Amino acid sequence: MRAAIGCSPEEAVAQLKQGNPVALPTETVYGLVAPLWSEDAILKVYTFKQRPLNNPLIVHVLDECQLDQVAYVNAQATKLVNVFWPGPLTLILPKKLSVPLIVTAQQSSVAVRAPSSPLFRKVLALLGTPLVAPSANKFQQVSPTCAQHVMHGMGDTISYILDGGPCSLGIESTILSLLDEQHPTLLRYGPISKESLENVLEQSIHMPTADTSDHATKLCPGLFKKHYSPHTPLYLVDKLQGFKPPQHLEQQFKQQSAYIFFTRPQRTLTEKEFYLTENEDLTEAAANLFATLQYLDQRHFQSIWIEKVPPKGIGYAINDRLNRAAQDCFL
Ligand code: TXA
Ligand code: MG
Hints:
- The chain is α/β, with parallel strands linked by helices and 331 residues long.
- It has twelve helices and 14 strands.
- The mean pLDDT is 94.
- Bound molecules: threonylcarbamoyladenylate and magnesium ion.
- Magnesium ion binds next to loops.
């Protein structure tokens, strides 16, 4: 099969009603979507993505009414939903019976978020039921932030891609577990910072011991150490300016490599040099991160070298994704 790319929410709904997963845009990344009530279509989502069945999916809802259908809502969730929904915040809550166990990987908790993308919301409204959606990329690969990325990575398996243009945020939602009300726990960095969640909750938020620890992986099965990886080897360095690679990588660093700076260097760039933001804007850097990796991955460089971004706000989420993406390439 070769996917069709189009702009019709009605066509997406028609495909979903026939049991075919479709790709839809959200404000974070494109999702591969199936209706909550269709276990067959949900199984296809796992299969198309080559995703292990023990890695649960996020349920996407239109509003608090649909949230109520799938999860037991506590006071903390209500506070956060009032401020951040619709938007890039996923909450982990106790699940209700209506959620099939295939969605939650047999767990008693469920991940829920209300995306703000108008096209996604239109499909939710037309269908009248929540939708499950992981990012629309194959397991451990770079998340798609435009319809062409989905076509490139998954076009041979899915039938329809709803084209909403580039995703405005470009990085996956923040995930917060509210299962233990005394200890809200941040499971994934994302566009909404830990500090802004703490301000609304008036409570401090716990972090898994280290970004890529085994403990974090148990709490959030999708937090694999290796994730978001391009096919081309990716090396992560503190600063590219003045960087000296270790001896065994000198050749690799100099020949047929691409370099991604955080912000545009104040000089003429070679055709092997790229940057994430014109002027130190972390939001712009996040929006360009996966698109830049996807672009360079298709350009036959032998390696890609990228520098960390300042650790503040959404910069934590960018560095988190970079650490995982570069997991196989030791310096
Ligand atoms: O922005 C996003 O969240 C995007 C868009 C499409 O909405 N979705 C996304 O889904 O990033 P995915 O499947 O790529 O990542 C979801 C993460 C996985 O790490 C998964 O393990 C975790 O959420 N997760 C899902 N249900 C969970 C649960 N009950 N408890 C803990 N973690 C859960
Ligand atoms: Mg993903």
